[in-house]
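Reagents: none. Just compute today. CoA carboxyltransferase C-terminal domain-containing protein.
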Amino acid sequence: ITCLARINGQVVGINASNPIVNVGATNTDALEKSTSFLCLCDSYNIPLIFLADTPGHFTGKEAELKRVGSRVVNQIQALFQVTVPKITINIRKNYGQAMGNMCSGGTGHDFLVAWPTAELGFMDPTIAADVVYGNLPEEERQKKVEKMMADTSPYPAAGSYWIQDIINPYDTRKYIISVLDIVRDSKNQGMSKHLLANWPKKF
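Predicted 3D structure written out:
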């Protein structure tokens, strides 16, 4: 989902996962749409808000034929070039490379928080346990899954300062308003350097 909105009178661009469609997984069309939206917001000095709830990117033969790898890279490189404020809120699941494409993992966010319901990791714990530990007896496997599920909680991430805060979902609007006020009082007042003026949105 990409849209323009107003929060407390301030125009913002919202780039959000849509878990109703494909459980929130992103395909090549979604990545191209996101890249175009990043360019739009950066061109018009519009702060970006990312609402992350994605299990990852689509893979497989069809995705490869549509060059999903190059779309992932093009979107994330555009994300690195964005110079308007970037606010990321991890809502639920946020796994793997898609985490970076949703401006969560070291991709230049200015503000990064999570709801208590967030799950952060390299993949879903039920799958990750099999990848990491291989075939285990069911009882032992379940223990590994539970351990990995605990590790995907946002609290360890906040404890290691990987995310800045864990916020009550009810306070999300209040939080966004507060950081937009910080941006407005900053040296450049959230103005873009317009590095994406000629960015290739499709190729």
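DSSP finds eight helices and seven strands in the chain.
Action item: order primers for follow-up constructs.
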